[in-house]
Design brief:
The protein has 158 residues and is an alpha+beta fold. The protein folds into 2 domains: 111 residues, hypothetical protein tt1634, CATH 3.40.1520; 38 residues. The chain is globular and about 40 Å long. α2 packs antiparallel against α3. Helix content is 51%, strand content 24%. It contains 6 helices and 5 strands. A 5-stranded antiparallel β-sheet has the order 3-2-4-1-5, sandwiched between helices. The two termini are 27 Å apart.
Length: 158
């Protein structure tokens, strides 16, 4: 079961930097994301959502590409269409992602110039992931973490 973590930052740059750090932790194998997004509000009150490809979309695209490539050799036009259909179907069937409704709830809490980092975490070594965030100042907006882990995250970001 995925865990949701939403962290508020004073700027979009801070949220992006924290995500970049967590992506480094992901490359080390200490965390795995289902989905991530940075939601920011500019000085004029306009909200911007920068959503990265979810793990489901990546898997769907890879499998669809392989299937399409194999079928393309035998049936060129059908291979392209089938590959696209398989990729889209797998992505939709396996992906949950961060819902638009949930993002909208968090958007309502933003003020001009601030941002929120959405993390849908499939699995993680909490100690390593939290330690990597100690260099950032943020606030936990919402989580589905266990109380002890959430408190450690709050302490790291303060």
């Amino acid at each position: 079961m995925s865990r949701i973590v939403v962290i508020g930052f004073d700027s979009e740059d801070d949220a992006r930097a924290a995500l970049h750090t967590l992506r480094g932790v992901e490359k080390q194998g200490a965390i795995k994301f289902d989905d991530t997004a940075v939601v920011s509000m500019d000085e004029h009150g306009k909200v911007h959502v920068k959503n990265e490809a979810s793990g489901a979309a990546e898997v769907g695209a890879a499998v669809g590409g392989i299937m399409g490539g194999l079928l393309f050799v035998v049936f060129p036009i059908a291979g392209i269409a089938a590959g696209a259909a398989v990729g889209a179907g797998l992505g939709a069937a396996t992906g949950h992602g961060i819902s638009g409704t949930f993002r909208d709830e968090i958007k309502a809490e933003l003020t001009p110039g601030t941002s929120a980092l959405f993390l849908q975490i499939q699995e993680a070594n909490a100690d390593i992931a939290i330690a990597s965030l100690r260099q950032y100042h943020g606030r936990v907006i919402q989580t589905s973490l266990e109380a002890e882990t959430e408190e450690a995250l709050r302490a790291a970001l303060s």
